[in-house]
Specification:
The protein has 636 residues and is an alpha+beta fold. It has a domain of 149 residues: Heat Shock Protein 90, CATH 3.30.565. 51% of the residues lie in helices and 19% in strands. The protein has 14 helices and 19 strands. A 7-stranded antiparallel beta sheet has the order 8-7-6-12-11-10-9. It has a 5-stranded antiparallel beta sheet with strand order 2-1-5-4-3. A hairpin with a 4-residue loop joins β11 and β12. The longest helix is centred in the middle third of the chain and has 134 residues. The N and C termini lie far apart (130 Å). It holds the Pfam family HATPase_c. It comes from Halomonas ventosae. Keywords: ATP-binding, Cell inner membrane, Cell membrane, Coiled coil, Kinase, Membrane, Nucleotide-binding, Phosphoprotein, Transferase, Transmembrane, Transmembrane helix, Two-component regulatory system. It is a multi-pass membrane protein. Its main location: membrane.
């Protein structure tokens, strides 16, 4: 084919392609519009039929109520002589029926149109005393027929539907006429509220084309078409809509595709700017016509969607030819690209394997170092624990050294007495005075028991502690510590004041460790009061909730303010060289901390140092149902 011919064919194809696109989109839009419009019409007809049935059912379920109330004896009796009776029982009866039936109001009118009793007797806008002779429902009922009426209430200004029935005092006479009218008013707001939930606009127009009910509040009490002056005056004379202006709703009919169906729009208001498909359904039983307006936006969207889909499909078909010849070229390029990718992935895999091996070696080495450090830390903690226990035992032995002088004095006196009693017993035996010798031997036995008790105290204090906390009696611990310092207290003339409750005080602690801390604190207090003229040692126990505070107070020189922050530091001491290592208070604080408590130090208000131990309170072995822990003999 010559080059010129191929160029003309290409130009013709470029010209036909957009024309074919426009034709395809136009035909698809027409088909979609007809189908969407048909579906919209079917939906509107179904919703219109259901809404009409719902409106008829809502209004018709109350038409029995006026006849029922008109036949009640209380109503007839009151209507026979209303001037001589109290209307309140009848008002309450009507109010009960109103609440039970779910209507707005119920009221009784006499033959002159005056309201005698009403369910809203207690409201400011009550119907009692109002004349409704002008209402058609009264005129129909007083003529002996059931009445129906719709309109605005004179007092409440609410839209309602009225049912009326005649009240007969004597319905047997041929020329008898009703003596009153019973009226039931039903509001329409509940039904309109259900309409607002639908995807459509619903309108109810009367025979004068006045929109009496609508799902949109802005459309209520408006006219479908502008009213002439005569029409407006005629409506005002009926007083059906009071003095409402009845302005036009602004509806424009743009097309009438079929019977009872229209295409409408709005010039103003909340529905302005959209087109609607309008269908209507007559309701001859009420003299109304029910209208439904369905937005045509789905139809327009269906048109555009079909046009776009047709255009897209046309474009796919057109592009399919251009895509075909590119497949071979793209396949060749993909194969080349895949080959490059395989080579690249192979290099990346090799590099990754090398990195993994190198990282694995690093992790193994790091793990080995961490394992060694963990083992070293465990050994260090074990050595630290052993060193701490040795320091605790050393501190106890140091306290034993401080007690040695007093205990030596305590032992020397019984020893001297034993020697004297033994010599006397020997002399008495030589003289055959066995009774006197037995008395001396009894004294020797008593003195040896006393020496055994002193040595037991030292042995008990030097023993190691247990592993698990138990229930410990604080007064018993104080008693044991005081017995260790019995000779020093007596020789130094120290008075001891005990301040704790009568009942037993128990803490959760280790017996040996707590005794060691109390011995250490009492020993420090005795050293601090060595140069005090009237030394006094105060021991206190104060239960406070879940805790118990144990206090040791002396009246010595106290603790200097500069030393309060360092008093629990290891090897810190204010004593002269050779008098102590400065470990007693540090070890005591560590012991109390291990027991779950705390040890604090400050100066007492009256002078002297005050040490406070705070430990968890324990109910005691009897309260917990366990056995009382065994204590050494010196605690008896």
């Amino acid at each position: 084919m010559p080059l010129m011919s191929r160029r003309r064919v290409r130009q013709l194809l470029w010209l036909l392609m957009p024309l074919g696109l426009v034709l395809a989109m136009w035909q698809a839009a027409l088909l979609a519009r007809d189908q969407a419009l048909q579906e919209l019409r079917q939906d509107a007809e179904n919703e219109l039929r259901l809404s009409a049935a719902s409106l008829v059912g809502h209004l018709s379920r109350h038409d029995y109520l006026p006849d029922l109330l008109a036949s009640r004896e209380m109503v007839r009796r009151f209507l026979a002589s209303p001037e001589s009776q109290d209307p309140m029982p009848l008002n309450r009866l009507l109010d009960r029926f109103r609440a039970t039936a779910g209507v707005s109001d119920i009221y009784l009118i006499d033959r002159h149109g005056d309201t005698l009793a009403a369910s809203n007797w207690h409201r400011p806008n009550t119907f009692i005393g109002q004349n409704y002779a002008f209402r058609s429902y009264f005129q129909e009922a007083i003529a002996g027929h059931a009445g129906r009426f719709y309109g605005l209430g004179v007092q409440s200004r609410e839209r309602g539907y009225y049912f009326s029935a005649p009240v007969w005092l004597d319905d047997t006479a041929p020329d008898a006429s009703p003596d009153g009218v019973m009226v039931v008013k039903v509001l329409l707001d509940t039904l309109e509220a259900s309409w607002a939930e639908q995807d459509a606009e619903l309108l109810v127009t009367d025979e004068d084309d006045i929109i009496f009910m609508a799902s949109r509040p802005e459309l209520r009490m408006r006219a479908l078409q502008p009213l002439s002056g005569d029409e407006r005056e005629a409506l005002l004379d009926t007083r059906r809509y009071a003095d409402e202006p009845l302005a036009p709703a602004g509806i424009e009919i743009t097309d009438t595709p079929g019977e009872h169906s229209q295409r409408v729009g709005f010039r103003r208001g909340p529905l302005a700017g959209d087109d609607y498909l309008g269908l209507s359904r007559p309701m001859p039983a009420f003299g109304w016509e029910l209208h439904i307006l369905k937005s045509l936006a789905p139809v327009i969207q269906a048109q555009w969607l079909a046009a776009l889909l047709a255009g897209g499909l046309y474009g796919v078909v057109v592009l399919a030819g251009g895509i075909g010849w590119q497949r071979l070229r793209l396949r060749r390029e993909r194969e080349q690209f895949a080959d490059r990718e395989r080579r690249t992935l192979a290099r990346a895999r090799d590099e990754l394997e090398r990195n993994v091996q190198r990282r694995t070696r690093d992790l193994v080495e790091t793990n080995r170092r961490l394992s060694g450090e963990i083992e070293e830390r465990r050994r260090a903690e074990e050595r630290l624990r052993q060193t701490r226990d040795e320091l605790v035992q050393a501190a106890k032995l140091a306290v034993l050294g401080q007690l040695a002088a007093g205990i030596n004095h305590e032992l020397n006196q019984p020893l001297a007495a034993i020697r004297a009693y033994a010599e006397n017993a020997s002399e008495f035996l030589a003289r055959s005075r066995t009774e006197a010798a037995s008395g001396n031997l009894a004294q020797i036995i008593e003195l040896t028991e006393r020496m055994a008790e002193i040595s037991a105290q030292l042995r008990q204090f030097s023993r190691k502690s247990g592993d698990r906390p138990t229930s410990v009696s604080v007064p018993a611990c104080f008693g044991y510590a005081l017995r260790l310092f019995q000779s020093r207290l007596r020789d130094a003339g120290v008075s001891v004041e005990r301040d704790w409750p009568v009942q037993e005080a128990w803490v959760r602690a280790d017996l040996v460790r707590l005794e060691q801390v109390l011995v250490n604190l009492i020993g420090n207090a005795l050293q601090a009061m060595a140069r005090t003229e009237a030394p006094c040692l105060q021991l206190g126990i104060e239960p406070d909730g879940d805790e118990v505070r144990i206090r040791v107070i002396d009246n010595g020189p106290g603790i200097a303010e500069a030393h309060l922050g360092r008093i629990f530091e290891p090897f810190f001491t204010t004593k002269s060289p050779g008098s102590g290592l400065g470990l007693g208070l540090s070890i005591s604080a560590r012991i109390i901390d291990d027991l779950g408590g705390r040890l604090t130090a400050d100066n007492a208000p009256g002078g002297g140092a005050r040490f406070t131990i705070t430990l968890p309170r324990d109910p005691g072995p009897e309260a917990t149902g366990g056995t009382r822990p065994e204590e050494h003999d010196t605690h008896a």
